[in-house]
Write a structure and sequence with these properties.
It is built from no helices and 5 strands. With 67 residues, the protein is mainly β. The chain has one domain. The chain has a 3-stranded antiparallel β-sheet, with no helix packed on it.
């Protein structure tokens, strides 16, 4: 699998990933950093565009921020 692009639902979310192909049976990490503008609940989505039929793969991150 090759991750071509990763997009986020807001500018307060940054992502990093290894640009190398992911071999069958192997895994890869996508590092996500959220810098919320205010305290409280958040719910962010991340779209992972890759060379698989199910692309984009949608990831959701939620939680409570305390600045």
């Amino acid at each position: 699998m090759i991750i071509n692009h990763v997009s986020t639902s807001c500018g307060c979310t940054a992502v990093e990933w290894d640009k190398q192909p992911i071999e069958p049976g192997k895994t890869a990490d996508i590092k996500v950093e959220i810098k919320p503008e205010e305290d409280g609940y958040f719910n962010k989505t991340i779209d992972v565009y890759c060379n698989v039929k199910e692309s984009p793969i949608k990831l959701t991150i939620s939680g409570t921020a305390n600045k």
